[in-house]
């Protein structure tokens, strides 16, 4: 069975408007697990959309995912997406492998070039030009996957323009083999799909634009290197504000903020959300990330689990008797 024949995976993606404490992230992840979702992902940001927002509370993506690895029991966990600029590739390989071990093999790595210049400036992180960031991302992917697949004792080396690894004979050892699934995505027509075809288990079509065409470009990139496109998943992000009444829906929609995001969001009843997921499936998506912004609104997660997931082919079902 190829990935696209095994049903739609329903996931929650958290990006809080004002940051979060770990207790808040944990509560949402456990609510996601109880509701029957297949995975819980979080963004990798140290600033919010408003860089001057004094209420924003930064948390490190992989530190919190490691905590969730021990504090959840079933949902898969990951980043959408980790900025390749934030961590040196060897360290990133070890961090993700450690979280994979802590979770019993439930971790996935969504990774991209990084895009938020002000965020890098605020935390003293180098932010080169676009071409250089893509070059660095390509080397990061080569090193991370190379370390994960290296046999202990045989040594792994890499000599690139931006990074160098010299004879690493004790590489990180993730539980999943050949390593945690990698997710790459975006709207770029050339380098992004080419890198995804080479390294990714999943291609994410990003938000806005012609999703069907982006999937087709990625599939052609797979074919160009002799890879069967059906061996990779197609995923989509769907911002969501779901309610059982107009007032409830509008309250949840008000948290989304950005007009661009609202334009592409599913705002409405559970049946409307189910219809939107069905539209994405017909376009070619087999994995859908419901993007939530109010991380304290656990009732919305429970509502979607009870009223939407049962109508999504192949999706998990809400659990009973799950303890936090």
UniProtKB/TrEMBL annotation:
Keyword Oxidoreductase: yes
Single annotated GO MF: alkanesulfonate monooxygenase activity
Tagged with keyword Oxidoreductase: yes
Segments for region (Disordered): 159-187
Keywords carried by this UniProt record: Flavoprotein, FMN, Monooxygenase, Oxidoreductase
SUPFAM superfamilies named in the record: Bacterial luciferase-like
InterPro entries for the chain: F420_OxRdatse_Rv1855c_pred, Luciferase-like_dom, Luciferase-like_sf, SsuD_RutA_monooxygenase
Start and end residues of each Luciferase-like domain: 15-253
Biased composition (Pro residues): 171-181
Pfam families to which the protein is assigned, alphabetical: Bac_luciferase
GO biological process: alkanesulfonate catabolic process
PANTHER family: ALKANESULFONATE MONOOXYGENASE, ALKANESULFONATE MONOOXYGENASE-RELATED
Name the record gives this protein: Probable F420-dependent oxidoreductase, Rv1855c family
Origin species: Saccharopolyspora flava
